[in-house]
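Could you show me some protein's one-letter sequence and the numbers that encode its backbone in two labelled lines?

___
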Amino acid sequence: MKYGLVIPIGGPRQFADYARQAEQAGWDGVFLGEAVWHNDIWIMLAAAAMQTEHVRLGSMISPLPRMRPWKLASETATLDHLSGGRVILSVGVGVLYYGYQSFLDEVTDIKVRAELLDEGIDILTLLYQGEPFTFQGKHYHIDLTKMDKQYYPPRPVQQPRIPIWVVGVWQRMKSMRRALRCDGLLLNKKDASGKDQAVTPADLRAAKSFIDANRTLTTPFDYIAEGVTVGMSPTQAVETIQPWADAGATWWIEAPYGKSEDEILAHLRQGPFKIPDA
């Protein structure tokens, strides 16, 4: 299991320094949430790339339906080169309370956002390959054959693409089938009315069985568990994380939203509570 940390504090200069400290403390990845209007996370992650050597750099998450996929492809591929192939892109439809309410031209219809997410994943995958293609979707239309290949940007270091983690809602099969086309699952669960419910290790185990049985891509696939162990003793933290590892999680992402800056920094500097090797 790898261990990542969302760092929801500090500006660009502070984040770069925090990423360096996280790498030294043994974290495997540092992540940033992406809002409609806030500090640009790709600039912040680029600053972190210049201060680190091996820690993975990612979004948690990027609301792909409100983005131009070719702009995101440019940003992430450039960062992949800058970091030597350390980028992870996490995508989803986006949550409306994360800034959409102020920008009235943003698409809020969930069906349309799901369509944009599906097309965006396909376009990113094609752009990362750096070869001519045509794409005729409901929302996007691309004909790269009209551009001379000498003007194409370099492909990402990571091939066949930068790993794409996607939010998947268990047991909504359209959402879960979307995950089959990606490289990692951020599991979600909702009740019949669409209200979020707590995901359990049993849910992850069931979702993993579905992915393992139905995914045809041969590239590696990650199962991501999110939670908070800030303020716990090492024993309590391991007891919290262990069931997720047993269920098949390959990443534990510490998401300390709502914790104080002092608590987050203390946890960052002490490093992750890792499950002891058997």
